[in-house]
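Can't attach files on this board, so I'm pasting raw text. These are the components:
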Amino acid sequence: MSKVQDYLIERLGIADTIVYAKKKTVPIHKQSFWYYWGGISLFCFIVQAVTGILLMVYYRPGPEAYESVRQITFETQFGWLIRSVHNWSATIFLVSVFIHMFSVFFMKAYRKPRELGWWSGMLLLLLGLTFGFSGYLLPMDDLSYFATKVGLEVPNTIPLIGPAIANLLRGGLEVSEFTVQRFFALHAVILPILYLPLLAIHLWLIQKHGNALPPTEEAKPESERRNMPFFPNFLAKDLAMWLITLNVIAVMASLFPWNLGPPADTLAPAPEGIHPEWYFMSQFATLKLVGRILPGMWGEAFGMTLFTLGLVLWFLIPIFDNDKANGVRSRQVTYFGIFVVAVLILTTIWGYIGL
Amino acid sequence: MSDLTADPTEPQVDEEMSRRGFVRVAVTGVTLAYVAAIGYPIYRYLNSSVEKSAAMAAVKDVTLDKANDIPKGTALMFKFGIRPAMLIHHEDDSWVALDAVCTHMGCTVKFDAAKGNIHCACHGGTYDAKTGQNIGGPPPRPLTVYKVAVNPTSVTVSRV
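---
Top answer:
Structure tokens for the assembled complex are below.
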């Protein structure tokens, strides 16, 4: 055994890496709990990859999309389970990504030298949301049809080039089997190609810079800080969290299997109470709200501009809050973060109440 | 009392070892249970189309509408369940139905009316067109013969 080990270590040239890994530690403090959410997101992503590949075994994009999902859900052995796991894992993935992002934000973990971690993470979030949006259409039932129709109105509001972009994404002037076909290519090929290298960079940066300390911990002298070894202590805890996540996904997928609505029908009116998935609810509700105050085209444009600006500001936080002095809180940034969380939560709740 | 059980540290070491052993067995057991709980649905899922295909292959008979009209000296290709099969109406008015999959490497065979035999293009195997007997080339076994019932408007082919 150890001969094989030695052989591999030498041939792979990873002796240095192993020394480094043995020295790797994770800080222990009151906020350590938040360190697990990136790992939970990663686990959900792995589940997505596995179940996604399994669904691809029977899924047929294009005109047969709905029929193939119907077969997967109702005829194929355990197809309902694979599909439900894919949907529930997507939901939990985005929940944990959001928790991960906000914990990084409030711990100020985006500060030097971790700016690239923040930016790569933000791009991963945007790709994750695009995964969600493109995957939602693939069953081509009535909800996914209208969600995509409405969603593609968003790029449509971009001045001048908007309609051309929307048409290219749709593969036509209306959502059709061509849209499903190219959304499938996007969902199962293009997005993974973009996502995986970015994820690799993101994970590599964490290995490089280690876990960030929250400002309260950084203020403490070195001697008062506590650490645990990454191998095996933190890894064991990480795996325990993965196991809990797996169980949550399994329970949700079994008890609340994902629904399949009636097939998309261009002539059928949109069903009452139609709304986007929860992760787009805030935008949906805000656009509705802005539309009440400022009806018509201008309200829409104003709302979209507001979102874009907010997102750009959020993205650029490491530049605004680049205070390198340890232990200095930049209160405004924290307040801004609390404001953003509050707005997201309130508009989401408002969106669900207003249904 | 306790000094009868010899060195008090001895059983403690044993207990430590058995606890370690217990944890190892428990972790292995739980891991295997998870592997089974995840692996079984995935296996059944991937095997689902195999089960469907097996169910389709299990048909006992096929009725071919208007097949009673096919001219003498010709063959009609049809699907018996999911396998290709052929119905031959011989010049002497006899009817023969055979599995059309070559027993050598699985190619679909062809009725050669001129030679009156069945021929496989892949490796040159030949079969007797009446009995399905392998008469030339590499095929190791004869073709399976089905029972034929000619009805007024159809032909029914069934397993022997």
